[in-house]
Amino acid sequence: MGTDAIRTRPITSPPAPPDDPYFYGWRMVPRWDDRKRQTWEKVPLTPWDVLHPEEEDFIVTNDAHDRDIHYLKDVFEECVAGRSGVRVLCDHRVLWEVPALGAHGPDVVVFENLNKPWNARRGTFPVKEMGARPLVIVEVTSPSTRYIDLDDKIEDYYRAGVPLYVIADRRETYDGQAFIRLMAYRTTPEGYVRVPEDPNGVWIEALKVWVQADGDRIVCVGEHGNRIPDLRDQRDAERQRAESEKQRADTEQVARIAAEQKLKELEAELKRLRGDTN
């Protein structure tokens, strides 16, 4: 595909296990039989396909990963609200249009300098065609493909001209407790250099926001120290409060009905004792 031709060095993740060919995901590929009738074949993805996806690939992920990247997208979109020519993409195919560098599907990427409106129905974002310039990429690792984020993408994103690459590396302790370790790389003429670790997390100057790790979750903090809530966490909390309120109201209603019934029984018993037959 012209400038989408890619280098051939091997990548770091192992192949899918023999008993699970769809471990990384799958791609539906059109086939034609002898009578020119079209069918579809479900083709397993490889680590290479995960690194360089095609449109409509189904790549296996997990709920914790999805929750983090959609939180980041929501926060970043709020950070750039009102800024012209800026776009935040999540899990979207990006074609850099750089010689020998294939397309990628960053978890979250922010572009500026778009020279025309973006059609949100397009499956591939062509960087040069849009006149776009990347500001930052954040990848949240998954167990099966984390070494792609930690190795292959460091070289690729530098070549793509990404000035800041942030990795949220999800790990587990020996007793199964999950945690996130943050690391970041900034561009220099000689290549990426590792950003020194900061107890405040990773500062994204272009967005004026800190990205931090809080146990097994990613959190963002504004430049004035305000923690930015996860809208889904807020919705879940509101839903739980609503359910608790309904349960309390239901309990009170049951108690009220029981009390009214008990009062009727006591009044009936009192009438009986008085010999009141009315």
From TrEMBL:
Residues 233-254 are annotated as: Disordered. Pfam families: Uma2 (PF05685). This is Putative restriction endonuclease domain-containing protein. Signal peptide: none annotated. It comes from the Bacteria. CDD domains: DUF820-like. It comes from Frigoriglobus tundricola. Residues 63-172 form the Putative restriction endonuclease domain.
